[in-house]
Design brief:
This protein is of the alpha/beta class. The two termini are about 30 Å apart.
């Protein structure tokens, strides 16, 4: 595989200037991907941002797709369906790509049994580091410095074989709101279908973790009574964990009785309400069944 086999897909929500900067950085990467598809779920941009996006699109630098409602897995499924190449590289909208990002992802598919490649992600203040392999890939650290096959991914630097991703139904759109663990659900389903997932440290980028927009649009998860921060994790556990109640109770304890909450105890009640509402919604979503492309389950 080479860069010409790659579509870059950028789902974006309530981001403007940083999105434009990310697009410009990706256009400077050599070799370039065949195309960049931007799936924009923002209701309205400032005029200057809107004008710049139109200019990128009119020059053919990007393909701009608008969606009326925010949903991370739906935006990624839309990009999967719209891509014109055999590989689709999903990136966050606030990243600094390495010069080798696209070529390293493409090279990671030399083995036909590899159905996805997840690249190294350096969060603010991080550098590449060697970690001991955790017993559970849920704890895998994506600033790791050595290639390895895993069963977990982060969608902010993830490439997939388009046909294999479509064959398993893409991403489950039952992961609502912050959609926590939707990537891991996808990874486990891909592995169950016989695909391997390669972590490739040469496909590296820096994640800028912009403080506004994106998942931050759903508010501070520490203080919110909304179920949209918790539902994904409980739904994931219902789908994949035989130790569901142990997993769920541990999550609840870790999210309600944090050091931050002990210093701000007036937020413990709304946070607990949000967790319980998320748990209830997760059960409802499981009864409904996964929301996959083409009815795949």
């Amino acid at each position: 595989m080479n860069a010409g086999d790659v579509t870059i897909a950028i789902p974006t929500f309530n981001r403007g200037e940083i999105l434009l900067q990310t697009i410009a950085r990706l256009l400077a990467v050599e070799p370039r991907a065949k195309e960049i598809v931007v799936v924009d779920q923002t209701a309205a941009h400032p005029e200057a941002v809107e004008r710049s996006l139109r200019d990128f699109a009119q020059r053919g630098d990007i393909r701009l797709i608008r969606l009326p409602q925010p949903s991370i897995p739906h935006a990624m499924n839309t990009a999967l369906l719209e891509a014109t190449t055999s590989l689709v590289l999903f990136l966050d909208d606030d990243v600094e790509p390495s010069a080798a990002l696209v070529s390293a992802h493409a090279a990671g598919f030399a083995d036909e049994t590899t159905h996805a490649v997840v690249g190294q992600i350096l969060q603010p203040g991080q550098s590449p580091q060697h970690h001991s392999r955790p017993a559970d890939d849920l704890e895998f650290r994506f600033n790791h410095d050595e290639a390895v096959f895993i069963t977990n991914v982060m969608a902010g630097n993830l490439s997939v074989r388009r046909d294999r991703a479509l064959a398993i139904g893409g991403f489950d759109e039952n992961f609502v709101g912050a959609a926590y663990r939707f990537e891991t659900d996808f990874a486990l389903r891909l592995a169950a279908a016989g695909g391997r997932i390669r972590f490739e440290p040469h496909a590296t980028l820096r994640h800028l973790q912009l403080a506004t927009g994106g998942l931050r649009s759903y508010g501070d998860h520490r203080t919110s009574a909304s179920p949209l921060h918790a539902t994904g994790d409980y739904y994931f556990a219902l789908r994949h964990r035989s130790d569901f109640w142990r997993y769920a109770l541990r999550r609840m304890r870790r999210n309600v009785a944090t050091r931050w909450h002990l210093r701000h105890p007036w937020f413990m009640a709304p946070k607990l309400i949000g967790e319980l509402r998320g748990l209830r919604l997760a059960f409802a979503l499981r009864r409904r069944g996964p929301a996959l492309l083409k009815g795949n389950r």
